[in-house]
Structures are given as C-alpha cells and as structure tokens.
Amino acid sequence: MKKIIIAALLFVASYTVEAQELVWETNVNKAMEISNKTKKPLMLFFTGSDWCGWCIRLQKEVLKTPEFAAWAKENVVLVELDYPRRTPQTPEIQAQNSGLQQAFGIQGFPTVYFANGTNKDGKMNFEGLGQTGYVAGGPTAWLAVADGFLKKK
Questions:
Q1: Dihedral sign (CA 36, 37, 38, 44)
Q2: Taking the model in full, what pTM does it have?
Q3: How do residues 107-119 score in pLDDT, each as one tens digit?
Q4: CA–CA dist 83, 95 (Å, integer)
Q5: CA 138 – CA 127 distance, rounded (Å)
Q6: Which of 26, 115, 22 is nearest to 73 (CA)?
Q7: What residues contact 42, with CB distance under 8 A and at least 6 apart?
C-alpha cells in the first residue's frame, strides 16, 4: 500500500514540476529571436496579474496546468505582457508593454494573441494568427481554440 501511495505522489509531483518549468519571456525582442530559431509562433499573454480576476482565473484553470505546459513546449514561445497595479516593473518593460498594447489594440484583459514576429531595422512586425481570452471549460476547451489558430498558419 505504501508503494502505491508513494508512486501516486511522485506521479502528481512530476506534473507539478512540469507546469512550473515553463519559461515566460517578458522581453519581446528576445522572444522573437527564440520564435525565429524554433519556428514557433509567439503566444502573447496580455494580463493584469495582480488585479484582473479573469486573468488570475485563466492562469489557475489553464496556464498553470500540466496539459497546457506540455502543449506550450511543443507549439509556442510564451510571452507575458503584464500591466500590474501593485507590482513594480522597469521603465523599459512598461514602455514595451504599453507600445504593444496600442499596436495590438488591446482593450480588455486577459487577451491572448498568437502571432509570428520579425524584427527588421529595429522595427517589430507581427503577422496575427488569432486572439482569444478566457474560455470556460479548462485546458481542453482553451487548447482547442488555440489549436484552431495555429493550424491556420
């Protein structure tokens, strides 16, 4: 019986570790370099991490799950563009995020935008693949929407 319990705990722990290993870039230029090297599109997550209830819910129900972690590692380069109210950010990140919010026309949070990006002569260019936000139904429902955008490319 002890062996079964230990095996179950190790199995659950491995899923928790897998979800925590995701790397969310905050610098879009660095994310574009990775995207171009790996030939994976960007997944830009526009969030208000410390005040937006729907953003927190999306994180909890989808973005911090083992299903999402496995999918993300295979399919996208993760980029978090945060607009916190209480958490300090560097002026560079604030300026970058503000510019991207305007460029993508983001009016509400959470917004997740899928795009291919290039940087020519210091200017960022994006080819939009689709956008979504919170989708009820957990990771399965959310990933079905995301896969629909990625299969179009």
A1: negative
A2: 0.85
A3: 999 999 999 998 8
A4: 11
A5: 27
A6: 22
A7: 28, 31, 32, 35, 76, 77, 79, 113, 114, 115, 116, 117, 126
